[in-house]
């Protein structure tokens, strides 16, 4: 199967053709896939070289002239390294952009910790007004990329990963989907965690919500689910464990509730290897998830 | 010669007025060199170079001036007030809770300010993107100007922008470095040399000589971005 990232350049190439406001800003990473688009739109496909502060700053400058910049590199170099540019050049300047990251929490484990960004969504949570899209399948990535570019001058983060579910669902860029209904607990599976969560909760009497748009958080869908399934809530996120615990608490502040936040651990593993090994090391494989979810909902 | 005489008279009168406007913010009638290091640069740009005006802030064809060195913005606010971008009666509230005029400017609050600044090293990368955005939209008329300080140039983000803009041939991009010798580690001629190494056109002039500034600002630089180093009195202390 192709990856979400394989879809990125073809989708943006079409959007560059369709919408003269769209500009793609790159810092070497991913540039080869845009060769054809760059030949056709030399002024709107911009590769600044290995310069991530300039990457985000130039994106902001494009936005100030009325364009819709789509800025791309690995998550660690898009959100973490130039974080102040994200905070000031976009947020404080009051302009929008679409930030599209690759490599996610540990898409390239052999690359080591320098190329892992489990904290990206938590970092963006310190800022105001960001929409965060976490597709769980390449088809969903296409849909959510189109939503992101079309979202006026909004600030949108799209988190692409090689981790994927087997099939894409009909996501709408706003709401959670209820993929299973139960009466004893709500499990929220974020993006590529869905298949594993469905396996892990097989036979459990729990509602499973599928979240691809995590900011803003679909509090309405969560509250509605708790009316039948009760207010024990498990979050399973493909990034830092507990990233969304606070928003779940806010959504359920009017009722007694419990929350278990599962995801990538903080501790640096100092391990290479493959994605499955890192999934297991963080306790995110189906068997371990089932134990942790059952233990919490019991 | 007539034009020169006229210019000189107009500028000296306005210059005096600017000092008075700054006094509304600080309560002082006289200002030290640090507070006014950018004053002549700003005045020459707004008075004679930039095609901007209070009625043109939504005009895509306007020139863009980005104050990257947001520290000590009194001279900037004074020039904006003198040119009618903001009311003079805003100046006395400078820095207060209800004032739009902070110790670092906020573009959302200050009419005429193209960017908010304060954290150093953000203006030049944004200016690069602005130049790219104008080019991508076929807007060949507007020029882009960014003002930075010599110590601000220590921030590495500037060097990402300088090293990109030269080879990219961003002809419409202009940088003015106000050099009051405040960088901790510096070598003579080092500022211009760094721009030149990246393929920029450069000029180094007396930052208090308005005619020299005007000449440097308007020098042709086909196919290359242009940097002007404006040298002023060393910052005291």
From TrEMBL, chain A:
It comes from the Bacteria. InterPro entries: PDH/Transketolase (IPR051157), THDP-binding (IPR029061), Transketo_C/PFOR_II (IPR009014), Transketolase-like_Pyr-bd (IPR005475). Pfam families: Transket_pyr (PF02779). One of its GO terms (molecular function) is magnesium ion binding. Residues 2-167 form the Transketolase-like pyrimidine-binding domain. This is Transketolase. It comes from Streptomyces lacrimifluminis.
Automatic annotation (TrEMBL), chain B:
Its cofactor is thiamine diphosphate. Residues 31-218 form the Transketolase N-terminal domain. Transmembrane segments: none annotated. The keyword Transit peptide does not apply. It comes from the Bacteria. Keywords: Thiamine pyrophosphate. InterPro entries: THDP-binding, Transketolase_N. GO terms for molecular function: magnesium ion binding. Belongs to the transketolase family. This is Transketolase. It comes from Streptomyces lacrimifluminis.
